[in-house]
Amino acid sequence: MKGIAMTVQAYILIQTEVGKASSVAHAVSAIPGVTLAEGVTGPYDVIMRAEAPSMEDFGRVILSKVQAVAGITRTLTCPVTTY
């Protein structure tokens, strides 16, 4: 859509190695584009929210850095749909 700035936003649910949730939350919160990173209980250990100007930037700038954080065993990316 011409004239409308689009932003890709997503929640990323993260499973970590035992005892690593706090250090993972701290590490991902330092990644540019991450707007929230908190430890949670349940099947995932950390939930984070991030945004980028495009899907390409989201993958290259955010997801690649999240996947490089030590202690992460699995992630699930949930894009946000806005209306």
From TrEMBL:
SUPFAM superfamilies: Dimeric alpha+beta barrel. This is Unannotated protein. Residues 12-80 form the Transcription regulator AsnC/Lrp ligand binding domain. It holds the Pfam family AsnC_trans_reg.
